[in-house]
User: Fold these one by one.
Assistant:
Number 1:
Amino acid sequence: MSFRLAAYAVCIEDGRVLLARHVPPVGRPNWTLPGGRVEHAEDPFDAVIREVSEETGCEAVVERLLGVDSRVIPANEARAGTEHQNVGVFYRIRITGGRLRPEPNGETAESVWTPILDVARLRRSSLVDVGLTLAQSSPATGHVAPVPVGGLIQH
């Protein structure tokens, strides 16, 4: 089983959420939250700020921890073909500066403000649904029930 610790940014303003279009080397593009892998010895709090800057070109501050999501992706659904556990730390963030741009030499082709009501029609990562659920429900435990994956939602 592979394992990944990642930090994700949920930024909501005026009924819109900031999404990034991820274009992987293999597979189909999809929409996701800005964020990614926590580097060795890096604090997830610092990682989410770094990832927002790298992927979107914007500066951000963390407003609060939203929660943690841990999911195991079965081998037959995982990109690498082996069972994979992803532990995601979700933060509510606020953009404080910069301008949206593609990630230089990266897999984020663009970042856009998307009306929350339009998200359901997008081909997207399950991370988007987890992040929005955490932001909207603010569970006291910081834990959401598993998000069903199917249709337009991808791991």
Note: Residues 69 and 76 are 21 Å apart (CA to CA).
Number 2:
Amino acid sequence: MRTFIRDNSLTLAFGAAFLLALTGQAIVGHIEFNEQLAVDDLYPVSFGTYVTSSDFAVDVTENWQSEYLQFFLYIFGTVWLLQRGSPESKSMHQAGPESDEEQRIGAHARGDSPRWAAADGWRQLVFSRSLGITMGALFVLSWFAQSVAGVASYNEQQLRQLEAPISWGGYLVSADFWSRTLQNWQSEFLAVASMVILSVYLRQRGSPESKPVGASHRATGVEG
């Protein structure tokens, strides 16, 4: 068990942090939601009712979709886009998908390589892009979930104000949907750009996200 925890400590730590943060969001979100109901002279709802409501779902999924979008774009973008001096970038001469030998695929696969890395045809094609494809699919699914939960939440507010609800298609072009979406996207893009450029000049000893402390500012694709 101790070996399992050590070998998976990064995933376990962030998984636990996720659950704690999600629980905290649910608790304070429930309080805030009931405060708003009180302002509208409506009865408060239970915690269970709130965490299964569209209001909670849209708040959660709008953050999920922006995170998966960030990783999807970053994974595919770093195939071709470079930043001299950043450990987040490949070396200047490595732009592109790289050769089969560099990627250890096909005839260049090793004994411990995944089976689909050594395969030919569509299996190698899919496996060699499986991380980006999965992140892209998770982004699309979470964005779709946000739109479904969002229109339900929006229409509940419309009904409370004795106004007509709108269709899902109408919600997709509404200011509410795009305000929720873009306020998350801009923060993700800023965070990625900041990490890329700051890692050129700043260091974190022992972190693979940083260059070695003594590495040149111009050293690119070097991790500590």
Note: The two ends are 28 Å apart (CA to CA).
Number 3:
Amino acid sequence: MPDPTVTALREAAVHRGFRLVASRKRTPGTGDYGRFGLTDPKGKPVIGIGTDGLTASAEDVEAFLRRGELDTWKQSATAPAAPIKAKPRAATPAPEAAAALPRRSARPAPTPPESKPKPTWSRTERVAKRAPEPPPLGIRPAVEKDAPSIAALLGLRGKARGEAAARIAACRKAGGGVLVGEQKAVLGCLAYVPVPALHRPLSGRITTLFVAERHRREGIG
């Protein structure tokens, strides 16, 4: 089973543009057991890589990555805003030049089309013409009867479609869960699982987040 600490450090390193190197020793107290290092994408050592093996702890690597993230945020916060270029205005001809320009012959104003009387609606008819407002979005834990809707939402086919209920139960058994968003019908789903670690408090990971295509960009996700 993968070590959650190593998995979290590796994902953080990739996010910052680095590559995590973990010790291959499996026996405590031998060589560089439990030590880590970082390289750039080309394999050039950055931190924790010595001539005798790896030297950085998990806390050292995490502190380095967090410090790099903070520096990037500070640079973006203090960067000057790009100047706004004003659009050039069309040159106004001088009065003498304007007088020399040929005058256009006056054209008769077009005859306005015959205006049609606007329909008059009573207050009851106006209310009836309004489009009904959609029901509010509901978020709740998924239950077994949601399995067919979730399977259709995710586009599961064949055997995977029949295993949807078992997969929902497996998420709960692992300590996580599944949520659904609905407006009369299921529009989206989210699966999560807790990730324990020794070097930080308990955190969580979203393993699935899906919204029906016709309801995307509506703030549901």
Note: The first helix runs from residue 4 to 15.
